[in-house]
Every structure is written in C-alpha cells, then in structure tokens.
Amino acid sequence: DVEMGAEGRDGNEFIMTSSTQPSLSRVDTDKMFEWRVRNLPYPRDVYQLSVEGQHVVVRTTNRKYFKKIMVPDLARLALAPEAGSLSWTHAHNTLIVSYVKPKAVLEKERADAAERKTMKYIRAGQ
Questions:
Q1: Which residues are CB-contacts of 51 (< 8 A; sequence separation ≥ 6)?
Q2: What pTM was estimated for this model as a whole?
Q3: Angstrom distance (rounded) from CA 34 to CA 90
Q4: SS3 for the chain, per residue?
C-alpha cells in the first residue's frame, strides 16, 4: 500500500492517472464552444450525442463512456442548449464536440471585451 504523497518503495514509483483514461478539455473558438475527449478509441458509429436539460450528453452504444457536459455560458444567460447547434467529429482517438454559440452569448462576449478595454490597469506596488 502507498499513501498519497508518500514516496514509493524504491523512491521511483508514482501514483498517477492512466494514460488511456478518457480526458475532457474545453477549447473555445470565436463562434463555437468546443470540447475534446481524448483517448476514445471506439469506431465512429458508436458515439451518440444529445441535449438533456442544461447538459450536452456524450454516450457510446457499447456503454464504455458516458459524460454530461454543462455549458455554464448558456446557464448564466438562462439559455437552454439546442440540439440543432450541436455537431461532432472523431479522429485520432479524440472526439471533438462543437456547439455553435447563440447570438446572446456572442453579444455578451463583445460587451465584456468592450468593458475590459475601458478599464484602467494598475501595476502592483503603485
């Protein structure tokens, strides 16, 4: 048994997540929300994407992967995800889920960017 934070028996053993474990990351573009699920080696016809409530749901028909993805940008504006804005592709063991940003989100991002431009920046220690 190895306790978290303790050295391994010979000092070189580490406890880490498996490199084959699926991992989810979010990468947004100007016009889309995008999530990448790496380490999904299943064929293209196994994946099913849907919208359930406030979540985008990714599942496989072989029941090997299931994930509910919350879209906080939509929740902040009290918008529900729409299935028509959802698309996906699979290549190199990576599932790429894309969701087209609604006009309300794009307008909010533009307003936030304009507000940041008007802010004064103060350096630390001044």
A1: 57, 80, 81, 82, 83, 86
A2: 0.79
A3: 13
A4: CCCCCCCCCCCCCCCCCCCCCCEEEECCCCCEEEEEEECCCCCHHHEEEEEECCEEEEEECCCCCEEEEECHHHHHCCCCCCHHHEEEEEECCEEEEEEECCHHHHHHHHHHHHHHHHCCCCCCCC
Residue type, 53: G
Locate 68 and state its tokens: 């509910």
Q: For residue 56, is pLDDT > 70?
A: yes
CA distance 100 to 3: 45
How far is the C-alpha of 103 from the C-alpha of 106, rounded, in Å?
5
Alpha carbon of 17 to those of 20, 21, 39: distances in Å? 9, 7, 13
Residue 126, CA distances (Å) to 115, 116, 119 in order: 23, 20, 16
Residue 74 CA to residue 101 CA, distance in Å, equals 9
Tokens of 12: 């070189």
Tokens of 14: 């580490």
The yes-or-no verdict on residue 8 having pLDDT over 90 is: no
Q: Which pLDDT belongs to residue 57?
A: 97
